[in-house]
Amino acid sequence: MxxxxxxxxxxxxxxxxxxxxxxxxxxxxxxxxxxxxLVRSFFIxxxxxxxxxxxxxxxxxxELVPGVVPxxxxxxxxxxxxxxxxxxxxxDDLIKxxxxxxxxxxxxxxxxxxxxxxxHPVHEPYVVLQPGSPRVAAEDFSVTVPEGRLWVMxxxxxxxxxxxxxxxxxxxxxxxxxxxxxxxxxxWSVLSRYGGVWDAVxxxx
Length: 205
Description:
This protein is α+β, with helices and mostly antiparallel strands. The protein folds into 2 domains: 7-38; 44-198, Umud Fragment, subunit A, CATH 2.10.109. 19% of the residues lie in helices and 27% in strands. It contains 3 helices and 12 strands; from the N terminus they run H-E-E-E-E-E-E-E-E-E-H-E-E-E-H. Strands 1, 2, 3, 4, 9, 10, 11 and 12 form an 8-stranded antiparallel sheet that branches. A 4-stranded antiparallel sheet has the order 7-6-5-8, with no helix packed on it. Strand 6 and strand 7 (120-122) form a beta hairpin. It starts with 7 loop residues before the first helix and ends in a 7-residue tail after the last helix.
């Protein structure tokens, strides 16, 4: 071995440090990509989604929806204010549940007070109607959702200013689908779209 050639332990140490540096750089890059383009955290500021989401909850949002993964009925989505939904001091994003897809006819209300979509009554187990509190909008309506738009409503139907007041939301304004509550720890849970309820809804004829 020549004097210029490093000893085996030294070579191993430098190889370890090099590999460690590569791992750290790759991990930081992956974290940046995930946080910037795939998953974001959002804070819940209002009561419109109670009991599913409470004021102060934090949720993770999958930003592959709707660009890569399609929106489905029952999804809880974050979307940018299409204009006029929020006051100037309330931020730019809202969170509601998708009730109607493009072409769907959403009607309210049936004999039991339930919605129907494409003529199919939807029994929503997550809905809150506070006793003695009037609905935000008129109870009876029938709307066909335009192409490229979504009909969204809050789970707290008595306290949600949603599509009943503001109309449908452009699908292009959807930031992503909320899929888990991460904070506080006591509230950790996966957000269900209640597939058993919504998958029974027929497509528009």
